[in-house]
Design brief:
Number of helices: 15
Largest sheet: 8 strands, mixed
Radius of gyration: 21 Å
Shape: globular
Order of helices and strands: HEEHEHEEEHEHHEEHEEHHHEEEHHHHH
Number of strands: 14
CATH architecture of the largest domain: 2-Layer Sandwich
CATH superfamily of the largest domain: Glutamine synthetase/guanido kinase, catalytic domain
Strand content: 15-25%
CATH topology of the largest domain: Creatine Kinase, Chain A, domain 2
Distance between the termini: 29 Å
Number of domains: 2
Amino acid sequence: MKNWLRKHQEVRTIRVAAADINGQPRGKRVPVRFADAVVENGTRFPMSVLNLDIWGEDIEDSPLVFESGDADGILKPTERGFMPMPWLDAPTALLPIWMFRENGKPYEGDPRHALAAVIDRYKARGLTPVCAMELEFYLIDDSGKTLQVPPSPRSGKRRKAAEIMSIRALDAFDTFFTDLYDACEAMDIPADTAISESGLGQFEINLMHTDDALRAADDAWLFKLLVKGLARRHGFAASFMAKPYADYSGNGLHTHFSIIDKEGTNVFDNGGTEGSPLLMNAVAGCLAAMHDSALIFAPHDNSYERLVPEAHAPNAICWAYENRTSAIRIPSGNPKARRIEHRVAGGDVNPYLLLAAILGAALIGIEEGMTPPAPITGNAYALDLPLLPETWQEAIDIFEKSPVIRKIFPQELIHNLVMTKRQELRYIDELTPEEKIEIYLDTV
C-alpha cells in the first residue's frame, strides 16, 4: 500500500472510508504525510458511525451512542489498498477500511464483515462463490423544478423517449462514458459492457465476474461512488435511486453467481441446460429467503415504487429458465457457465448486504438440501404467485422477526438495520415527494 503512494507523488490528500449500513462512505480526510500511520495502525471513529440514518444522523436510543459512551472501533485498511478518486479536482487517493473491535475481532455491525462471514462458511465447505453485478443508473438534470434527462454534450438536445440498447444514446454522452471507463481502469473496477436501458437517460454497466465475493461487492460500492462523483464533474447527476421517474422503469442491481469447488469446477453445471442438483438447492434457498430479505433488496421508501407489476422489476417469488419476468433467472448458454441471476434488488442497495443475503440464502438451500417448486413459464406478472412485501413497513417487521435472516446475519447487524430503517421511515413520512427525491437522488 505504501508503494502505491510512493509511485503517485502527485497525491496530496487521502480519504479513508468504510461503508455504513446504508452503503454510505463514512471516514476521514488525512494529509498524505500521515498516510503511513493509517496503513500501519488504522484509524478510529465511533462504532455508531456505521449505523447512521440516511441523513447521516445518530439513531435515537441506539445502544451504540450514549449507552456505551459512543465507543470507538478500530478501522483497518481492506486488502483493496489505495486507489485514485478521479472525480475530485485535486489528486486524491481513497483507502477503503473496515471496522474491528478493540480486541481485534470484527465488528458485527460492519456490512463488509457480514459478507466475509458468509464467504467463510462457503470456504469451510470447500466452495467459492463467483459473482458479477449489473448496475443500472440514470443520468439526470436536477437543476430545475422537475427532473429531466441532461442535454447531450454533443448535440445540446435532450432525449424525449427511452431508447433501449441505442448506440445513439450512448454516443450522446460519449465524453462522460469515456471518462468513466478511464476512471474504472485507474481504480481497477472491471467495467465491461454499457447499454442504454428502458428509462429516460437510463444506462446499465456490467462488472466482470470474480471468484472473490468481497471484491465484487467492493467493485459495486466503488462504482456507485465513482459514477455519482464523475457525473457531477460533468455538470449533471447520476442516480441509482430505485425509482426516480414514476413513468419509467426503476434502477435494478442484478447479481449473477455460480459456485466452484476446490478444483475450480462449477458445481451448478451438470452438462445440460437444467443445471445440477446443487443449482436446484441454491435456487430453493434463494426463494425461501426472498420474502424475509426484502428489506435488503428494497431498503428505502422509494424502493417500493419500483417493485410493481410490469415495470421490469420482479414482485413475485419465482424462478425460471431464461425469463426476465421472474425473480430468479437461469440464463442459457454454455453449461460450464451455468449460474443464477438474482433480479430483485434495486440500485439503491448496500452491495455488501445484498451479496451476503443472496449467497447466505443459497448456502442455506445447499446445506438443507432444499428443493424448489417447478420453474414458471410465461409472464410472471400474470400468474398467481407468492409476492414480496408490498410496503416498507411490512418488510422491516418481517426482517426483524425472521428465523432465516438470523441464519445469515449476526444479531447486532439485524438490530442496527431495523433501528436505522424505523427512524428513516418515521422521518420520511414527514417529507413531500420533492423532498424525498432530494434526499435519495444523490445519496443512494
